[in-house]
Amino acid sequence: MKIAKEKVAAIHYTLTDNSGNVLDSSKGRQPLYYIQGIGNLIPGMEEGLEGKSKGDKFTIKVSPEKGYGVRDDRQIQKVPRSAFGTQEVKKGMQFSASGNHGSQVVTVTEVGLDTVTIDGNHPLAGVELNFDVEVMEVRSATSEELAHGHVHGPGGHHH
C-alpha cells in the first residue's frame, strides 16, 4: 500500500537544518502517525511522502514556503513591559497572544526595562528543512479517524 490521501502512515524521521543541526527526531520514541492529505503535516512533507511505501528510506528537502513560511519582520514588535503585569518575562519564553488573525504563539526575543520584543514568526520560519525518513506502516484510515481528523489507537489519539 502506498501513502496517499486519507491513508494513515507511520514514519520515523530526523529533521536537520542545512548546517546538519538536529532540530527534531522520532528516534527513541514511537513513530509519528498521521493522516495523509488532510493538513496534519507541513505541505512539503506531505508532498515528499506521497506515493511512498512501508520500508522506504529517503530524504525530503522542504523550502520555507512549503514548511513554516518565510520570516516576516512585521511579526516582530515591541510591546510595553506593563502588558505582562507582574509576570516574570525572559528571553525565549513563549506566550499565546490575540491579534488580527486570531490567537498565535509569540516568542520573547528581547527584554528591556520598558519594552519587551516579541516575534510571531514560527521558530522554523525561513529555515530550509531536511528530513531523513523511514516509512514504518501504511494503512487505510478508519471513518472515525477521518471524521475526527487524526489517528486513533497505537501511535495516535485515544478517546
What are the SSEs and their pairings?
Blueprint (H helix, E strand, L loop, with lengths): L6 E10 L5 E4 L6 E4 L7 H7 L7 E6 L13 E5 L13 E6 L2 E10 L3 E5 L9 E12 L2 H6 L11
Antiparallel strand pairs: 1-2, 1-3, 1-9, 4-9, 5-8, 6-7, 7-8
Gross morphology: elongated
Largest sheet: number of strands, sense, barrel closure: 5 strands, antiparallel
Mean pLDDT: 93
Summarize the helix and strand pattern as letters: EEEHEEEEEEH
Write down the Rg.
19 Å
**What share of the residues lie within helices?**
under 10%
Estimate the strand proportion: 35-45%
Number of strands: 9
Head-to-tail CA distance between termini: 27 Å
Number of domains: 2
- Looking at the structure, the CATH topology of the largest domain is Chitinase A, domain 3
Tally the helices. Answer: 2
CATH class of the largest domain: Alpha Beta
Uncertain segments: none
- Structural class call reads mainly beta
CATH architecture of the largest domain: Roll
